[in-house]
Amino acid sequence: MFGKYLSASILPIALGCIVGNALADEVVEGKEQVIIIKEAPPAPAPAAVEQAAPKPKPISQAVAAAPAPGRWYVGGGIGRAWLGDAPESIDPNIATEGAVLGLDDSDMGWKAFLGYQFHPNFAAELSYVDLGKYNVNHVLAPGTENDTVEPDAWCLSGVGSYPVSGGLSLLGKLGVCKWDDHAGETVTGGAVPDREGADGTDLTFGIGASYDLSEHVATRLELERYLNVSEDKGNVDMLSLNILYRF
Fold this sequence. Notes:
Helix content: 10-25%
Number of domains: 1
Strand order of the largest sheet: 1-3-4-7-8-10-11-12
Largest sheet: 8 strands, antiparallel, barrel
Radius of gyration: 44 Å
Distance between the termini: 119 Å
Strand content: over 45%
Shape: elongated
CATH class: Mainly Beta
Number of strands: 12
């Protein structure tokens, strides 16, 4: 009798446990489904991020473009100048006058220029150049003579440029100059000064490189030759460092 009542009381409890476990499993499965549904999407791959973000252009590319046409510019520079064919280019008669006692055939030079950029690769330039002062001291019986030349020139030149990379460009120039050598002499002893200066028109040409520091400012390194600017026979070479400003 007791066993009958025990069996009858345990059966509902067992059924309740079974039903409870089943309901718990369903709840857990439902929660897992919700978690799966709410799971965050995967992060984009690094390559996709790189493609989405535009890459900034290097500064050098912005400066690399050739100067825009239709722009004026001014500039100037200083450098070292050398007189060729000295001492005859200072005093053409020195061979018949006496031995050389001293010679100075190099000096500081400078120039200033105004230019117009009429094409991305070509410009016209008007310049004034002071090519320094040179002298030779020699015997002139019964004393000595000191001869000097101080050439300067006004030049009109064409300037061609070729961009290489970044703001760097190669330069070439060709022009014509109206020059004056401002020759002079001083003598000691019984000799009489008879020196006259010379002037004329001749060519100039050169090569160089420029570098754009900004849209408006650039530097130039130039090696130029000015033909026959001393006694109409002596050439002057000048290596100069210049800076220019574009309007």
